[in-house]
Amino acid sequence: MVVSDDPDGGDGMGLDVDGVEQEVATGSLPGWDRVEEHVRAAHERYRGNDDGAVADYIPVLAEADRSLFGVCVAESGGAVHAVGDADVEFSVQSISKAFVYALVCEAYGHEGVLERVGVDSTGLPFNSVMAVELHDGHPRNPMVNAGALATTALVPGASFAEQWENVRTGLSRFAGRPLELDGEVYRSESATNMRNKAIARLLESYGRIELDPLEVVDVYTKQCALRVGARDLAVMGATLADGGVNPVTGERVVSAQVCRDTLAVLASTGMYERSGEWLFEIGLPAKSGVAGGIVAVAPGKGAIGTYSPPLDPAGNSVRGQRATAYLSRTLGLNLFASSAQVPVTPTRPTERRDPAS
Length: 357
Fold this sequence. Notes:
- The structure is a single chain.
- This protein is an alpha+beta fold.
- The chain has one domain (2-330): 3-Layer(aba) Sandwich (Beta-lactamase), CATH 3.40.710.10.
- The protein is built from twelve helices and nine strands.
- 53% of the residues are buried.
- Mean pLDDT is 88; it is low at 1-10.
- This is Glutaminase.
- Substrate binds at residues 94, 145, 189, 196, 220, 272, 290.
């Protein structure tokens, strides 16, 4: 069933979904053939788009092939639909924040993490120092750099090497395969991450990071340099969609409560300054990274993973946003897309009678 066929929907973000009808969000995805058809259609529709600019503030990212474009949908039942460059690897970047946050919540619980890192949008760029100063050093959001650094500092481990290994193996469990460090990206980011080092030192001065801030930045830089593909992102997202159970391996990675908390944060803050527009237009919790990846999660159904290096001014993949918007509409994933299935006649509640009367 279609909620609306408004031909202008989505134009505020330049999503290019004119004429794509919004299907009602039901309790399940359509059949395998229809999902496959729509994933292929999304890739075909946007693969020729050349809008956006490749990130260049990390030198090695500026060398990315802007023509690469992969789309993947992983269903909660384990089916995977991959098209285009879905297996080309790239650095996960800020998408790692969502999954490290989930691992830390699993280790310390809802309240334990909330005491150290808030869940409110800052309304400022992801690498803002001002966001720390405005709130007396309290990180407001785990999906921007200040909150992400404070979150990484909470990863269990007796040493920084052990913390890093716990991050790598934890994200590998989400992906269902071993993820490896991209050494070139790590070295390139390490040479240019002065702002993150400044943020970490500022957090230390407020007592929000109790470890060596430069070592925390190093672990964080490594987590951002893990290599993934669009297929990996879809499976990782589907693990959150399936209450913490990886739909491909069957392994429980985190609890259902942790998934709920993580998806709530992604819904409000996962797409940088455009998170509100994203939720309004696409209606899914999501996270992006400046290498060109996006993961979007449909709770109980599965997830979309995309990869395309050219970004919009907010740092989100242009093709990735458009493909996700298309699939949100055609697969009925938008959490807010509903429609009455049958006419309902209001009735008055039956009056209670006094047994003594």
